[in-house]
Amino acid sequence: MKLAGLYFLACFLLWGCGSTGSVDMPEILPRLIEQEPFPPMSEALFLSHSELDLRILIAADGSVLRAQLMNPTNDAVWDSLAGERMKQWKFSPAIHNGKPIAMWINFHAHVKFEIPVYIGLAEIECETAEVADSVFAMLQAGGNFDSLVSSFSISKSKENHGQLGQVDISRYGESVKRVLTALKGDGYTEPIPFGEHFVIFKRLAADARFD
User: Fold this and answer.
1) Which of 29, 66, 153, 210 has the most other CB atoms within 10 Å of its CB?
2) What are the residue ranges of CATH 3.10.50.40 in the chain?
């Protein structure tokens, strides 16, 4: 049997040597904000490799440039797929002297199994907290979500009216997942820090269609 819905829970981090061009420790360290699940894993492989040592190069924009398994499994196909999944993860970047920098991180992680929880989501991603607070105030005053997406969102989802489709909310951190789980249909969150930006999520009604 294959286990799907495999995420990781980092138990401790071993940070790399600052940026790619400096050995100084940044003032703000990277933080994982969104992750693709690992590929399905057999029960035997999960039991023998439920802990992984990962090494990742995070770009100044929070994207992943390189990803490595430092303790590879005996399944070369799974290792390769896991590396590709890690390249899709999103981090808040390291900040050094007030500027985002690229940085290697190394960490020991526990892999965990979670049953996927899918809900329909849309988003407005705002560049600053001030803009996000203003958009949230307009929503509370009865503003149209789609119109505010068009006017203020900086996400690629703007091209689809902010719709993300059916999303497994386990991909987000625990604090974000709790907020999304509590949302009712057509409800929206307060601005949530998301890397360097801020996101207002809307839970779409059960009968919403996705393009």
Assistant:
1) 153
2) 118-203
